[in-house]
Amino acid sequence: MKKIPLHTKIIIGLILGLLFGIASIQFGWDASFTTDYIKPFGTIFVNSLKMIAVPLVLASLIVGVANLGDISKLSRIGGKTIFIYLITTVIAITIGLVAVNVLQPGKKLPAETRDQLLALYTINAEKSSDIAEDLKTRSPLQPIVDIIPENFFAATTDNSAMLQVVFFAIIAGIALLQIPKEKGASVISFFDGLNDVIIKIVEYIMIFAPYGVFALIASLLVEIAGDNPDKAFELLYALLWYTLTVVIGLASMVLIIYPAIFKLFTKIKYRDFFIGMRPAQLLAFSTSSSSATLPVTMKQVEEELGVSEEVSSFVLPLGATINMDGTSLYQAVAAVFIAQALGLGLSIGAQLMIVLTATLASIGSAGVPGAGMVMLVIVLESIGIPTAGIALIVAPDRILDMCRTVVNVTGDATVTMVVASTEGELPDGLIRKTIVTAPA
Ligand code: ASP
Question: Are 38 and 218 in contact (CB under 8 A)?
Fold first, then answer.
C-alpha cells in the first residue's frame, strides 16, 4: 500500500479533531472527557516539541555561526538576514494598517457589544494593565537589557527567554571562530552531533503529530465553546469583522507578498516552496507556537527545500525568535481596531508610531501561544490607547494566534530561501534536495 504522506496524515488529524469538537459541542457531550482524556495527548505532543526547542536553537546557532568560517561572512549573512527580517515586518505592519483603515472593523462593533466585552474580559485586561504599569516604570532601554541573560542556565530553562539563548549562542559561535581551530573543533563537533540527535528526535515526535494535532484541535474547540456555546459563538460573531480584517491581512502576506519576494529574489517556484513547507505550517496552526514548530521548519527547509544547514541553522532559529510578520500585522490591526471601537482617532503620527512599536513588540514576543497579545500592550501604550481595550479582542485571539503563527513560520522560511538563493545556493531553482543531490 502506498504510504500516506505526513502532511496528509496531519490534515486528517486536524479535520477529525474539528469534527470531534463540533460533535461534542453539538451533542452536548461531557466536556470533561475531552479535557481529561484527549487534551493530555495534545499537551504531550506540544511539550515534546518544546522540550527540544532550547537545545535546538543553542546547538544549531552555535554550529551555524561557527560554520560560517569567518567574521566577514557572518556579518554579511547576519546583516542581510536581519535587514530582510525587518523589511518584511514593516511590510506586514503596513498591510495591517491599510486593511484596518479601509475595512474599519472597530466602527462596525455595536456599542452594546463593546461594553459587554469590556465588562466580560476586564480581568484579562487587568493582567495586561499590570504589565503596562511595569512597562511604564521601565527604562526605554530595558528591551536591550533583557537580551543579555544574567544567568545563562536560567535562560535555557525558560522557552520564552529564547532571545537570551540566541544571544549567548551567537556570542559563543563568534568566539569559536576566533580561538585556535584545533581547540574549537571538539566543541563544534559536540554541538553538531547534538544537532543531529535533535533532528532525529523530531522524526520520532512527528510520528505522533497527527494524533497530537487531533487532540489539540478537539480540545481547543470544546474549550472555546465553554459552558455556554451559544454565548461564545455570539461573541465570536460580533468580532467577525475584526477577525476577517486580520485574516485578510495575513492572507495577503502569504498569497501576495511572499510570492512576490520569491519572484524578485529567487528562482524558486512559490508553489514548490509551499508544498515543502506544509507540515511546518500545519503544525504552526495547531500548536500556535513558532518555537515549538522550529524543529520541523528546519527539517523541512533542509530536507525538502534543499537549503544548506549552514544557512538554515543560522537564519531560522533567529527568525523564530525575532521575525514575526503575522504577529506584527495582527498587533497593528488590533491597536487600530481598539482605537476605532473606543471612538479614539489616530493621527498619521500615531500610525507611524504603530509601525515602530509593533516592529519592536513582535521582536520581543516569544514564539509561544498568546505572546503577541501580551506584547500588544507596548503598542497601545505608545499611542495612548487604554490597555483595558485588550478586553475587546480576547475572544477570537486563540484562533487568530493559530493563523498568525502560520505566517510567522512561513515568513521565516521565505527569508531563509532568499538568503540561501542570494548566497548562491539553489541556483537552478530546483528545491527538492533529492533532485539537487541526485547523482549525476
Ligand atoms: N504564537 C505566536 C508564535 O509563536 C506569537 C504570537 O503572536 O502570539 O509565533
Answer: yes
